[in-house]
Write a structure and sequence with these properties.
This is Amidinotransferase. InterPro entries: Amdntrnsf_FN0238. The chain is an alpha/beta fold. It has one domain: L-arginine/glycine Amidinotransferase, Chain A. The protein contains ten helices and 16 strands. It has helices at 39-59, 108-117, 138-141, 161-171, 212-223, 234-238, 264-269, 272-278, 290-293, 299-302, and strands spanning 8-14, 63-69, 84-87, 91-94, 122-125, 142-145, 150-154, 174-178, 195-197, 201-204, 228-231, 245-250, 256-263, 283-287, 304-306, 320-323.
Amino acid sequence: MSAQAPSAVILIRAEKFVPNPATAADNAFQADIPAGQSADITSAQALAEMDAVADALREAGVRVHVFEDHDHTRPDSVFPNNWLSTHAGGTVAVYPMYASNRRHERRADVLEMLKSSYRVQTIVDYSGLEPDGIFLEGTGAMVLDHVSRVAYMAVSHRADSHVLERFCTDFGYEPMAFDAVDSSGVPVYHTNVIACIGTDVAMIALEMIPDVVRREQVRERLTVNGRKVVELTEAQIREFAGNAVELCGRTPDGRRRYIMAMSARARRSLTPEQVAVIEESCEIVAIDIPTIELAGGSVRCMIAGVHLDLRPTEVPPTTAVRAINEDHPVTADGRYVDAGV
């Protein structure tokens, strides 16, 4: 298993997809549904795109866990990486979400699948910080370097530096927070729209970090172990070029196959030189998802990577759950409970 590139992923197949009106104010990447297009047509197009992502990843030899979502009150459930992350050694994190209508995206059935199929020892739940107005939206808010153990984060009201410190203490990462803004001075809402870290290559819009000293610190930290950096422009970020993820698949004969999953729109924005650098270490797999991108996220946002070891099916799981607040609903036998499921 690659430390950086998971070989399994979780996808949510949301039957009632729509760009979330509760997140439009601070997500500069979000767009409206085309005028005159019905909600049913939008949902049907999004479902086809979700299925295309799942099929492309399976074709690349990635293990894909798909969960259906029939709930029309969860418009952003297609983006599970904001509430869930998994980590080598058997730990899982559950995160506090900024938009109130996103908080019931957290699903007990997803956690139960992880506990039954993978070696999960502990679930650390930060969602109890929501009543205090403190948020850290998972691997949207953070871009994690699992090799060098660094958590990169563009500070925003969806990404609190104090919770970052807490996460890094709990999970053994070095925090690297910075400000990132677009050319109009608007803060970047999620770090994973401007940065992607693979095993041997990273893509990042360093020009969007206004503090020159911090910008160079980020560059140096990314390259300290020989990783190559592809510098993206703000125009490419607008095309979701930063919202990609490295995964580890298998060829038909069982050999490892490293891929960089991104949208077709993101792939079209890259220069031949940038593509050449990326493909030195992994193959680009590009999927067209224009409807889903209306919600302000792309392929990376759709994927919750599984960095866990598979569990022998005959061994019953035992998992400890550590909630951040005392009032969080956790049963006596350690199961995570979500009333929204």
